[in-house]
Amino acid sequence: MSRSSGLGTRLLLAQILVLLAGALTTAVVAIVVGPPLFREHLHRAGVPTDSHEQFHAEQAYTYATAISVGVAIAAAALTASVVTWYVTRRLRRSLSEVSAAATRIADGRFDARVSPPHLGADFDALAGAFNAMATRLEDVEATRRRLLGDLAHEIRTPVSVVGAYLEALEDGVKTLDESSISVMRDQAGRLVRLSEDVSALAQAEEGRVISREWVDTERLVAAALATVADRATAAHVALGSRIDSGVGPLWVDPQRLGQVLGNLLDNALRHTPANGRVDVSVSVGPGRGGAVITVADTGEGVAAEHLPHLFERFYRVDPARGRAGGGSGIGLAIAKAIVEAHDGRIRVASAGPGQGTVFTIDLPSGPAA
Known about the structure:
By secondary structure, this protein is an alpha+beta fold. Helices cover 61% and strands 11% of the residues.
């Protein structure tokens, strides 16, 4: 059979092969089994052996059998052709729809979907899987476009500032003094931090940065607090920690989980006013063990409509203040990616503006000792 044969041709040829096999089987059975049984019945009916009556009766039986088998095969062939045409038509329509939708997706139109063919659970499952794939690709493409737009927006400000200062220096409007150098250095540093954060986010989402080991919980928390201690003192924000006695070592990547705690503490300090407080606590996880880490502050809090979006790239509750404060807007996205690479989960809660914010990290238990 040619590989270029269509689905209808292949199904029809398969039906013909089945019919031929059935006809051959029927003929063999009719020739081998039928005549002896018929002759036995004639003898029981009193027909003499080798008589003219037996001869004509056996001829009539042979003709009737041949005609019956021929008519049956013809009817079966006609029925098979009709059924094959109908099934092929439905299959071809469904496959054509899938092919056309796949072509549209290949052309970048990710809104393409296929309708359930109603040809059985397998075909309906295929259509559902295709639609799920298309939805996922559409989400990925939307995220990619949003990410590129956000990156362009984030890069535009520092580049514009540096360009404006260089132009002012060329025109003699400004002089290359300490103030001008400081501004341009800050904007260059902002670009460097942005590139480093984007790289860290990409690596965290790919899970390539996780190298686990047993880590002392108290030491991990103390190191994270130490990195922000000077900032907290300057901002007049108190830091605290509490580790339950039942918490043992954590099976984590110390550098990456430390990065998560650093991002959460940095976020808490940025949004906690003077005389506020930021606390880190660690308790034993419920059910499956592990640990629950919380970073709670008494800061500005978050309105309910913003909570579901805090871990999105470049999302800010107050965009203007976030850019002015130098944050890249992807610190929480990095934290989420790293926690999920640890097979954990991170969530956020807040009673509302002015009520503080609580970030909670659920980490699974490590391998058996």
